[in-house]
Design brief:
Length: 353
């Protein structure tokens, strides 16, 4: 998971509204996909230049422009100028280290979300999704073409889908809902990882288990920072503080708000479980060390009297009566064995073994 990747120091000293790309550096050309639709038709296009999108600005239909790649500053500036987007908004679009937030510019809304998905290796990845919601358009910006929005595209291609007869506010809700729904996929992966680590802890906790716990703890911390502010974003949308949000869309926003709360509650539960696993690991290691120390202590305790007996008869005194007795040596060995066995029986009765 990418935790610290930005270079916000690049913006130091620049004038407000200066668009600077902060995030993973890319060399491929950005790609713009356009869905222009209403209840009767849906046209799908793909462009690489911002000028080609100008034809949809004054379209009476609902338009969704999705820009994959925010590293092209010239492209961002052209789109911002075309749709009369405030320079500060375009500055935040280029900075992919934004926290989830909602800003109302009266003529449009600016929303920032975090898309979460798993790459081919199973690592959790986070991509910033910026939405500009206008009266009849939605412009989405993402870092690359990997997203969780394919379900929305499929619904747009379906002539019978509800989304085709709704406006830009419902489209924005659909995009937010797709992002939030995919959080549950990430939670399922975390649940599987937690279950696997718990099984290792109960059987044979190792240093690898400790590393896995710390990795999981970092992931949950990062996810919590990505999801927690989303509650206020959706809550502000459902309060209809902007005239761009219609009453018919509020009921759907309430549903996605409930989903966001459920995600956060589940994540808090997982965080507590991971903290408990760390304590379980430390307790297991401590108990295992105590068992080893107990065995060593018992062995040392048994040999203390045996060492004393051997030390007494190892002294080089001339007048020791037992030295002249033929059976003294085997008798002494038998005594030492009896002492050791007697101590073992005593330890067993005291339940120290």
């Amino acid at each position: 998971m990418r935790l610290l990747r930005g270079k916000s120091s690049q913006m130091a000293g620049l004038a407000p509204g200066t668009v600077v790309h902060i995030g993973e550096q890319k060399v491929e050309a950005p790609r713009i996909t356009v869905f222009d639709y209403d209840g009767q038709h849906c046209d799908e296009h793909e462009f690489t230049a911002a000028e080609a999108c100008l034809q949809f600005k004054d379209s009476p239909t609902t338009t969704w422009l999705n820009v994959s790649g925010v590293h092209d500053i010239a492209l961002l500036e052209k789109l911002g100028a075309c749709y009369q987007i405030h320079p500060l908004v375009m500055e935040d679009v280029g900075n992919t280290e934004q926290r989830p937030k909602l800003e109302d510019y009266r003529d449009y809304l600016f929303i920032v979300l975090k898309m979460l998905y798993c790459d081919d290796s199973g690592e959790i990845m986070a991509e910033q999704l910026s939405l500009i919601v206008g009266p009849n358009f939605v412009i989405s910006f993402q870092e690359n073409g990997k997203d969780v929005l394919e379900s929305v595209r499929v619904r747009l291609r379906n002539a019978q889908a509800r989304i085709r007869s709704q406006g830009s506010d419902y489209l924005a809700y659909s995009l937010i809902d797709a992002v939030v729904d995919h959080y549950f996929v990430i939670l399922e992966k975390l649940a599987a990882d937690i279950e696997e680590i718990e099984e290792d802890l109960t059987q044979n906790p190792t240093a690898e288990s400790l590393r896995a716990i710390h990795r999981l703890k970092r992931e949950i911390l990062f996810l919590r920072k990505s999801v927690w502010p989303l509650r206020e974003v959706i809550n502000s949308l459902q309060r209809r503080e902007s005239p761009l949000i219609r009453e018919s869309t509020v009921v759907y926003l309430r549903d996605v708000y409930d989903h966001a709360i459920q995600v956060m509650d589940t994540m808090e539960t997982y965080r507590d479980m991971v903290s408990g696993m760390l304590e379980t690991y430390l307790s297991s290691v401590s108990n295992r060390l105590n068992e080893v120390m107990k065995v060593l202590t018992i062995i040392a305790t048994i040999f203390i009297p045996l060492t004393f007996i051997a030390g007494v008869y190892g002294m080089n005194f001339r007048h020791m009566p037992e030295l002249e007795v033929p059976w003294a040596y085997p008798a002494l060995l038998c005594l030492m064995v009896a002492v050791g066995l007697g101590m073992l029986v005593y330890f067993r009765r005291r339940r120290w073994l």
